[in-house]
Write a structure and sequence with these properties.
By secondary structure, the chain is an alpha+beta fold. 29% of the residues lie in helices and 21% in strands.
């Protein structure tokens, strides 16, 4: 189930604000079909959780992919370059040691 936005565009997924078992909140990033994609850290208040959503949106839209995994093949590095899109522009996949 995709969510239709103003102008007829569809949304790829949605953020779900949920109660955490420890009297706080968590944010779940969910795909349109209901598949859980990611769960946030603990937030003590709804205000903090909403600020966390705003930060996630910013990072997801502009953040580069940094590969912390071991290199498996050149093909996988090419896939990561595709995720980089307009990232650094130098064609290199950033790697942290």
């Amino acid at each position: 189930m995709a969510i239709t936005l103003q102008g007829g565009r569809t949304m790829a997924g949605y953020f779900k604000l949920v109660d955490a078992h420890d009297d706080g909140f968590r944010v779940k990033l969910t795909a349109p079909d209901g598949t859980l994609v990611a769960v946030s850290t603990f937030y003590a208040s709804k205000e903090e959780a909403i600020a966390g959503i705003e930060l996630i949106r910013e990072i997801a839209g502009t953040g580069p992919v940094v590969d912390h995994s071991r290199t498996e093949s050149l093909h996988q590095d090419e896939l990561l370059l595709g995720l980089q899109g307009a990232g650094s522009g130098d064609g290199a996949v950033p790697r942290d040691a």
